[in-house]
Description:
mainly alpha; TAT_signal_bac_arc; TAT_signal; 8 helices; about 170 residues; single chain; Twin-arginine translocation signal domain-containing protein
Amino acid sequence: MEASRRTFLKAGAVAALALAAGGGIYRATHPPVLARFALDGEARAALHAIVPAILDGALPDAGPARAAAIAAATARVHQAILGLPLATQKEVQDLFGLLALAPARRLLTGIAGGWANAHVEQVSAFLQDWRVHRLGLLRSAYGALHDLVLGGWYADPSSWEAIGYPGPNRELAA
């Protein structure tokens, strides 16, 4: 069965309307964006899923130590975002807003069951797709997530030993 041009255009129009409706519902159900970045709800769950995918191999293998490392990395990413200019915080807030919205999450990442149920392999796959995507906007979003997570992780002196970094030069730090 071959789809006609008319069928294709109708399907595109319906998809655009669905995305617009989803965006409208999200804006109607969520309070206006605060002046500063707020990491809460599904956005926090998204970051909890993204951190282990980006830091794969650097985190403890399992158990409470892994959960504590993920929570600490998430908190450091949040602090790093708060240190950005307000305009950049707004852009990052918009990114996490898209990742929190179920239809956008499904369309952009392929994660269907919510961030709490996402497996590291699924998250790694969507991040890899974004890293090499033909759209520059998704490549930029990947770069932002990657840099924020790694920056937050390596800002903690306890992670320096694993990469052989002795810390800042004491003569320069004084």
